Amino acid sequence: MLKSVLLALMFVASSGNAATSKYLIKSTQSWNGNELPAYALAQPEVTIKEIIIAPGEKLPWHQHPVINAGILLSGELVVQTREGKKLHLKAGDTLIELVNTSHTGQNISNEPAKIVVFYLAEQGEKVTVLDHEHKE
């Protein structure tokens, strides 16, 4: 009898909510189709940033010297390269950002655009460089 009760309890416990997972994005390329660079890190450092862009705000031209990816939680963004290539993001969309390529972004919605970005860099390395700071 005790064994039956234990089995029944195990069944009930295992038939409840179970964790699930799904890929939001997985790629060897950034959003413009360029292959991500290979690099070795002596001391990897992961940075996670929440970036909030006001309605209508346009970010300055900048570059990322490191691989990074993000998910837009709210608002709408248009990301653009100097060559005119564009990516339109809506809440829930993911992206693998450009590496060492100038770009800007603008919130085209009436609400703050909130994006969470994950960076992988050498410890202490800048993850974003404004174009006027960039030395080629």
Instruction: Give the number of DSSP strands.
Output: 9
Helix content: under 10%
The largest sheet, given as strand count, sense and whether it forms a barrel, is:
4 strands, antiparallel
What is the CATH fold-level name? Jelly Rolls
Q: In terms of structural class, how would the helical and strand content be classed?
A: mainly beta
Question: Can you identify the CATH class?
Answer: Mainly Beta
Distance between the termini: 76 Å
Shape estimate = globular
Average predicted local confidence, pLDDT: 91
- CATH superfamily, please? Jelly Rolls
Proportion of residues in extended strands: 35-45%
Question: What's the layout of helices and strands?
Answer:
Elements: H1 2-14, E1 44-53, E2 62-63, E3 67-74, E4 76-81, E5 86-90, E6 94-96, E7 103-107, E8 113-122, E9 129-130
Antiparallel strand pairs: 1-8, 2-9, 3-6, 3-8, 4-5, 4-7
